[in-house]
Amino acid sequence: MKSRRAFSLLEALIVVAVIGIVASLGGAVFSHVVTSAREQKLQSDVDSLNRSVLAYLGAGGDLSAASSPEEVLSALKSRMSHASRVPTLSGSKVDERLTFVMQNAEEAGRKTRRAYWDGDAGRFVLATSGSTPGIKSFVLDDTLVNQGLEDENSRASMLYAAEDSWIWDYQEIPASRPAGPSAMPLTEVPDTVATPAPPGSGPVGLTPLASPTFSVPSGVFPITSFDLPLSLSNPNPAGSSELFYSIDFGNWKAYTGPLSVPPGALVAAQAISMSDLYSDSGRVDQSYDFIPGALIAPVISPDRPQMGLFTGRVIHVTLIEQNSSGLSTMQYKIGDEPWTDYTGPFPLDRDDYPTGALVQARATPINDFYTPSTTSLRTLGVEAALVTGTATGSFSNPIGEKDMVSNLNNGGSSDYFEWGLDTAADHMKSWLDFSNSSFNTVAAGERFQIGTLDYFNGTIAGGTAADHITFTANLNFDMNGVGASTALDFDFDLINVTNKNDPNDLWADADYVQLADPMASQTITFQGIEFLFQLEFGETSTDGISLFDEFYVLEGRSASTKLYGTLIEIGSVDFNN
Description:
- By secondary structure, the chain is mainly beta.
- The protein has three helices and 40 strands.
- The chain folds into four domains: 11-151, no CATH class; 208-291, Immunoglobulin-like; 294-382, Immunoglobulins (Immunoglobulin-like), CATH 2.60.40.10; 386-572, no CATH class.
């Protein structure tokens, strides 16, 4: 072996570990920071716009007819008519260059934050989902300057004087003078509706009438009993009286037949005398409270039981109402996402939910007569991607020192690769040998063996070593009935350490094979569905040690390691990118 000072095994392991951690975390942290910054800017822009809306309304502006964000921004940019007479803010409330960028259909389907104009609330609101695209950002456009907008609909509560020398316009209004006394008719006007008298108000000596009786006494009743049918009975002699009633302190009405009593109502009744022999009865009050009913949870009805792999990747989910019309509204949520009002069937895309989705649904009452339903649950899975096939491998394109000796120096490829010159009796060439393997019904995301790699760490003459070799994995797949063949290239670095010949630390002289890219991966496409194939080293024999991307062998020894691959589903191929 050539004598050059290099890193010890411990130093190399520390450096590789640090690089791996930084590489794996960097992408995720950067993506999170960018997304968080965009959402914070959108939140800040919406807060500023809502303050401008309040300023516009406070100055007499009117947004009641505005139904779109374009109309709102146009109003905020306008200058109030009669601006010189307005004792408050009369100019544009926002930068004239302000405009916005809408989401496209694909962006609207993601759970990203977007803004909408809420005409009922009179403000801009934020949401993470919706059936229509929202505003994804606010921007400045220099072409929108000097539009000269003027708001003719604004109505300031006060205006400086336009015609008078006073601060405000003022005009005396002469007091009106009555034309004279009014002529009032003195003829008697008969009552058309009897007016109940309070209890005991009749003339002394008259017989008091008995109070009406109720077919249903006061009480608490299930909400399903309402509207409650109620009849009044007159216990007095025929022709002596008529019954009058009132519901919830409303107007008194003559009783002509059964009543329909709403939940929580108070019904009052009284017998009114129709004879000179009787006085009116006392008033009787009866209350009819209710026990709230429990709503029934919606039925979750997908158009298929699971999201397919190659076809039917999108499921459309319908919620079926189990309650009478007008009692409730329905809401749903997916996993830990927020509750959303149900307005119609909604889609679930396997690209968004690669491991399946938990759908939850509930019915919420529109009044106090009912309580919310329990939550119905339904798990919608995904069709498993199962792979069966074989793998072969070969080495090619060796790179090394200027006097490199290799069985592949003249080109070509082979499943066996050796390098180095063994000029001394105790020197031997180093070599790699790949053995093929097969695999059966392996699920996506599950590690499977594609072959075995044998490595002999020989002692070779200086200047004859190979430092790099390309390994090609030839894979023949069958995934759920769809076949595919592909050749994936991975670069191996051959690390030759300087030998210390320390009998107490044999691993210090161990050479090793290293994946040039710690995240060694290639993409494979099956019928428009993209998968990531990752390569790694596995278990070794006695004289070898492996990490996921390195395979060490003692000096002058041979060892084998299992070579593993993993298929990870990425999703549908986007042909627009």
